[in-house]
Amino acid sequence: MPRSLRPAAAGLLFLSFLAACTGDDPVSPTPEAAPVDLAQLDCRVTVASGAMRCTSATPGTGGADGLVVGGQGVYVSLSAADHAYNVGTQTFSINVTVQNLIPQSLGTTDGATLDADGVRIFFAEDPVATDGSGLPVSVSNPTGMAPFLSGVQPYFQYSEVLSTNETSSALPWEFSVPSGVATFGFKVYVSTQVQFPAGWVDLTPSADTMVAGGTQALTATVRNVVGTAIPGAPVTFGSSNLAVGTVDASGLVTGVAAGSATITATSGVRTGQATLAVCPDLAVGGVYTATMPAASSICFAGGASGNAEYTYMPVNLSSASALSLSVTGAGIVAVTGPPSPSLAPGGPLMGMSAAQTQELDRRDDFHTAMLERDTRLGNDLARRQGTRVQRAGRRPGGPSMLIATGTPTVGDLWDLNVASGCSGAVDNRVGRVVSVGQHVIVVADTTNPAGGFTTAQYDSIRLEFDSLAYPVDTTNFGGPTDLDTNERVVAFYTRAVNELSPPASSVVTLGYFTARDLFSSAPTSCPRSNEGEMFYMLVPDPTGAVNSNVRTVSFVRGSTVGTMAHELQHLINASRRVYLNGTWTGSLEEVWLNEGLSHISEELMFYRTSVGLAPRGNIVVTNLTTGPNASRRVAAYNTYANPNFGRLRGWLQRPDTSGAFKTNDGLAARGAIWAFLRYAADRRNGNDATMWYDLVNTQSTGTANLQAVLGVDPNEWLRDFTSAIYADDAVAGIGAAQQITSWSFRSLYGALNGSYQLVPRALNNGVTLTLSYSRGGGTAYTRFGVPTGGFAGITALSGGLPPTSPYSLIVVRTK
């Protein structure tokens, strides 16, 4: 058929090509419907040659609706071949085919509306000899031909669906023909079903794709049942989605916004449809956002004077599960040039050896596991009587039971449990108070490996914590409780932390905090609690005495104060929720957000020690490595900022496997949530300390907490963050929502690792990319180009169907 989209509703119609005897009315071909008389066909067969010639018995005429009467070679064509005459039985046979010449299928199927009845050739009467012999000729009754029934002519059944210009398979027609007959004639008509018995409207756009804000003129041609145009027929237009495209009385469509709109043209009972895809009209740096399933099929435009390039980022916002997505591009071309980062081997940090870099890159998630255990214990502990600490006594003649109340003296011995959780046997380790500061009590396990920290080094750690970590955290998050009435937190340096790493392990547990120490050690509460504000710290092990894992003094010393700041945030967060932020609901902060805030603590330590650098300074590598404060800034970066960059590096390399809002997803997710919180603070552009404080001092948790503080749906900002981490400092013309103004990640990763560590994937034309996108913000960065003046379509399906929420989509035009 001509190019048009037909209405879904269809009726039944028997198209009849009638060839009745002059003056006789045709008999109805079937009992279920009367035929429509469209043409008369007279056919003549020459027995000797088998030639069959059919002509219209009535000349073509015009009807009121534009219908032109036609016949053989106009609406249908009957052709014969392979004739044979059996002298003994006086039967003549030919193989006859039917060709459909109208722009509707004959015998078209359309679900339950139309049946595949195919085409039937009806005989209006018996054939007669046409050579003057007067001999009788009749239609035989071979297999496949219906017999003469009461009131019904015989017919040949062509059980096929014939599209326009399609020719059927041949059926053998047989006639009883006396031997003296040279020619005979007959009159037939054709009966079939069609989808549009009243006709239709051809609605033809000059193109089926347009940009938002553009216009597209539609041409409407009203046609009758056999496709003949009906001049002057009035037409009205309507749009299925006015938010995507509008249409005026002349058929001019205006694109409003990206999406798909079906334009319907109506002329009486005739209708036609054309579906137009409206593409976002993006300038370089422009952004398109949408949600699934509406965004499962989107088009994009090429440039006016060159190829356009885009980066396509679907984001799984589900908090429950990973989701598979298959992305396919049509009409796309390859991308060229930047921003096209490639993964390069990691290099040493500024001023550090490769071995030191590798050590700083190794972290594990034991303390994350402890936080998860704490969240599970929360509701249970809230129901118990021991929510508040109830001090136990001292063990006569030995070390203090639990954390001693009041200010201790250097040399005091404490018996501290290191076994995790609340239930089960305790694992008490004897700790000696080795340094007492204004805000911290440093305690060392008496069984720590040899060659560890000296007293002077413990004193320097205490001084650094008091002057740096404690004021940074308490200024931004609030102060911890003082359940043990010593006005300090306890840092227990114990080989028990080293024991958490398996033998010959490549990962390191630097320390951890557990909220169980904030609850009573009473049998009805948490018997393993040490009843006080404390965290547990890695100790040096130069010879690998614990599980054969060497932990050098320089490595542990370089990371210990940053870890203390990290764990202090966890302690503050938990203690204030349980005791200070109003009535405790039994819920501690969700682990992913809790971790993100602790990584913010590490970043705040960098700003405090970097001599003049501050948030929203778009720090590039030369800000660190040049000028009079270069050595101090490099040291600040290596000590406090680099761990976050190491974690984020893992997420940049495989963002589909983890998400910023995903709990228990290792270092990569923790790097992503740190970067997101920094992005959110930059975008909010208010007082950062107020933002951090508000996130801690509440009983809300997770995304509800973020939404209350940010004042927007955090999932929307997570989607925008996904694009910002790619476009910032790389794409001209991007808006504020696509910027991270505190750090130039491309500059710093380029200096540290040889390239930006985000790895986009090229989408190849017609080749499907299928990935499983992690819950909590998993994404993938996919690049494609669109040729000059052209359009490309991108489809995203999950299990072959458009994905539903919580998939969100963001696309940036990069060139």
Description of the structure:
The longest helix has 28 residues, at 553-580. The chain is an alpha+beta fold and 815 residues long. Residues 1-36, 60-64, 341-365 and 391-400 have low confidence and may be disordered. A seven-stranded mixed sheet has the order 25-26-27-28-29-31-30. Strands 3, 4, 7, 8, 10 and 12 form a six-stranded antiparallel sheet that branches. Strands 21, 23, 32, 34, 35 and 37 form a six-stranded mixed sheet that branches. The protein contains 13 helices and 37 strands.
Structural class: alpha+beta
User: What's the end-to-end separation, in Å?
Assistant: 40 Å
The parts where pLDDT drops under 50 for at least 5 residues are: 1-36, 60-64, 341-365, 391-400
Number of extended strands: 37
Backbone CA Rg: 41 Å
Main attributes of the structure:
6-stranded antiparallel sheet, alpha+beta, 37 strands, disordered N terminus
Give the structure's gist in a few sentences:
By secondary structure, the chain is of the alpha+beta class. It contains 13 helices and 37 strands. The chain is elongated, with a radius of gyration of 41 Å.
Topology of this protein?
Elements: E1 15-17, E2 36-39, E3 41-46, E4 52-56, E5 76-86, E6 91-100, E7 119-123, E8 128-129, E9 138-139, E10 155-158, E11 171-176, E12 183-191, E13 200-205, E14 209-211, E15 215-223, E16 236-239, E17 245-247, E18 252-255, E19 259-267, E20 270-279, E21 287-291, E22 297-301, E23 308-316, E24 323-330, H1 354-361, H2 366-383, E25 400-401, E26 413-417, E27 428-436, E28 440-445, H3 455-477, E29 489-493, H4 495-498, E30 511-512, E31 534-537, H5 553-580, H6 591-609, H7 621-625, H8 630-653, H9 666-684, H10 688-696, H11 702-710, H12 714-727, H13 745-753, E32 761-762, E33 769-773, E34 778-779, E35 782-786, E36 791-797, E37 807-813
Parallel strand pairs: 1-2, 14-20, 25-26, 28-29, 29-31, 32-35
Antiparallel strand pairs: 3-4, 3-12, 5-6, 6-11, 7-10, 7-12, 8-12, 9-11, 13-15, 15-18, 16-19, 17-18, 19-20, 21-37, 22-36, 23-34, 23-35, 23-37, 24-33, 24-36, 26-27, 27-28, 30-31
Helix pairs in contact: 3-5, 3-6, 5-6, 6-8, 6-9, 8-9
